[in-house]
Each structure stands twice: as C-alpha cells, then as structure tokens.
C-alpha cells in the first residue's frame, strides 16, 4: 500500500471517529490502530471503539489519577522500567518478571489490584513513549523491550500466574497497539545481541554495558524496579472475628454462579462487597439489569467478571451506582466442573444521604437453586 493510500484511509478514519474525537487522537496515534489491523478500516474502528469500552469499564482515566498503589506492589513487584535508548533513539524498557515472588504476592495482594497496577503501568508506558516522540520530533513510535528471565522457574508457570499473564497479554494487545518495536530475551549470547541494538553507554553495567546510577549502582535501580521477596509479615492474616460474624456463608456448586440481586433506589449510592473463599479462587463481577431478563448476557457488565485469589486474601471493593435500578453481584464458578466453592460474603448499600449501611437483609435477594439462578448461569 502506498503512502498516499494510507493517508486517504487515515483521513476517513478521522472522520469515522468524529463522535469520540479527543485532542490526543492525532495522525500518529490513529495510525497505530490502522497498522494493528493492516489498514482494514472497519476492523480498526471496531478495535478502537472496543478500546473505549475497555477504558470505561476499567475506569482507566480515574485509575491514572487516583489509584493508590498497595505498599506490597510498590515495594516488591518487579515492575521493570525504562532505561536508556536503542541505536535508533527509541526508549528501552527492561522487563524483569522472573524476579516476581509469586507465593508472597498471591498471599498479600488482591488480583484486582495487580490488574489495576498493570493498567497504570501500561498507561505510563504509552504516555512516556508519546512524550519522547514529541520531544525528539521522531514519528517512529515504539520501544525495545529487554526480557530478563533471571530466576524464572516453575512457580511462574503455575495456573493462576499463567491465567493472569494471558489476561494481561490480551489487554495489552487489544488496547495498546504498535507499542512494541523489538523484543530481546536475556539468555545465551545476550550481551552480544544487546550491543547490536543498544550502545554500551545506554546499557546498565549489570547487563554488560557501562551505564550506572549517579550513586554507582550497576543495576540502575533508580530506573528499573526489580522488586523483591515479600516478607511474611505482609501476608493476609485471615478474616477478623468481628467481620466473620457479619458475613453470610454459601456453597457455589461446580458449573454454576451465585447471583445476589441488589435494589439500588438512590442515584449516587455505593455498593460495597467483601468476600473470602476456602481453598480455591472464584470469579466475581457486578451487572446492571436492563430489563426483565435475568441472563447475564442481557445485562450491562459494570464490574468485569474475573477470577480473584480470594482463597488467599480477603477481597473487597465498591461501586458508585450513578443510576438506580437492579444490580446483580455475581460469584462465578461456571468455569469449574469439579470443585464446589465455599464462600463467605457481605454485600451492603450505602445511601448518599445516610451514614449507615443497608445490609443484606431486605435489599439483597439471593438466587439459589431456583429457576432464576438457572437463567443467570446460562452464559
């Protein structure tokens, strides 16, 4: 395809997205979405509009401004970081996932907080690349990623970690296109490979170059976050007795979901939840009923349903209900065909004019083994 043909398609792409136009949607930005779909404009438009849905569901703009990173993630998660430039003047990002303390992290941090943290990291990466492109005047967009597999082992191949990694990759590919320019894996003759793409003075001494931090640190820890072992003092200590007494118990059978219907009467009310499972994880999501149907696929998914490590850590959260109506809190075990999940939960509604919480009694209808539950579990 010629450059002239690409410009014609790009112009049409701008016109198609006029209803959602934002200042950051310049030619360079929209070209990334077109390249990701090989300039098939219908597919690129579908991809971008799905990205907008993702941003709304995950409340991305609010996360960027207000998400408070849990101390354990901030101190011990190997987030990596930008360090130096490649020989083309592009930024280099070091990924040090092999240093992740899987055992400690799973027992100290909620999966949802890890997802939120990853979203903030991806947003930071995109913003950094955009700023670098503007600063240098280069139209080329993308980064070189150095994957350090040091200490990568079987713990990183466990099912929960693999599932979380796949979820991250899907989120990355669908919402941050054309960010990766080149990937270099640190193994074998990695030093020779690195200097082919990155000048020695742009590589930390730890990776075979000459760069150090101002204090002489050869690993450049001021730029690359290597994480560390999570102290056992950070592990979840179980459910306090005073909270346990207020929670309801339920068994969610294999292949089914437990739905709790919540009647929110006032705009601006806050729906809060707290839950813990025994032995195994469970899926969780919140839906808003749009009509008389009790099928999840006919409802609006306001908190995306995903698995939580609630067998390792007490899981909580809240939702600002901007509109009144029927909401359904879903505990999902439909993906498991063998294991029943023993669940303890608390669901409450905080009215904007009240200081007290309205609990399960009276406002939450529990769907058990009746016809309504059967409809809810048919996805």
From TrEMBL:
Gene3D superfamilies in the record: CRAL-TRIO lipid binding domain, GOLD domain
CDD domains linked to this entry: SEC14
Any one GO CC term of the record: cytoplasm
Positions of the GOLD domain: 232-349
Domain CRAL-TRIO: 69-186
Protein name: SEC14L2 protein
Organism: Branchiostoma lanceolatum (Common lancelet)
Taxonomic placement: Eukaryota, Metazoa, Chordata, Cephalochordata, Leptocardii
GN (gene name): SEC14L2
